[in-house]
């Protein structure tokens, strides 16, 4: 579904991602782990179009997406969530979700003038869909509140609703468990699993090992910009190379 071929990203002389090749299988929840500075977030930036690779190719369903703008990749069905979501604090929760869909009919003034009925119908459909997404993540009752009232965990759920409006086929989650209270963590894990049951392919960066072991299969380990190993969660967890990479990371 998502294929990386010899992907590198250099910052000056430092290769944050170094000749990485990887296949993300359709319909799975793949975990991406590795010590701090391994290059995980840089890899997400490359896949989602926030950065261009220095070398290599990235294919989504066989079509090259490396070098495409982030909004094009989003429209092609690949969405990402951020480690620290930053909703517009004074806008309502619902309006924050409605910001996401690009290319809606109402965006074209000429079109709005020619076909106001179609625009209104489209807006209604979008609102309904945004409300359904908020309902899915459990935030529907807060739809009219300003986003600033949300807790860290609720912001992650809002972020999820925001990307779901676009009906992505692949979602990259950057540390969905970070900064989330334990009660909401279960909700987030449950929502990710439910989306996956619905056929969404998922790639997750996460430092919380319980979350990774319970949710992800396979698990991919990165160290120093490279792929260290890829395999079943239990096998990865007990692999001496992985333990060494983490201990090396702590010592550094
Ligand atoms: N924009 C940038 N400019 C220069 N160096 C960068 C940039 N982004 C990342 N790096 C460097 O690239 C390396 C990989 O960073 P990255 O954030 O991708 O790691 P990570 O695995 O996501 O780490 P963490 O788990 O701490 O988030 C680090 O050495 C980092 O300092």
From TrEMBL:
- Work out whether the entry's keyword set contains Nucleotide-binding: yes
> Mind listing the GO molecular function terms for this protein?
ATP binding
Q: Which residues form a coiled coil?
A: none
UniProt keywords (A-Z) are: ATP-binding, Nucleotide-binding, Transport
Q: Which residues form the ABC transporter domain?
A: 2-249
Q: Does the keyword Repressor apply?
A: no
Q: Which SUPFAM superfamilies match?
A: P-loop containing nucleoside triphosphate hydrolases (SSF52540)
Protein name per UniProt: Branched-chain amino acid transport system ATP-binding protein
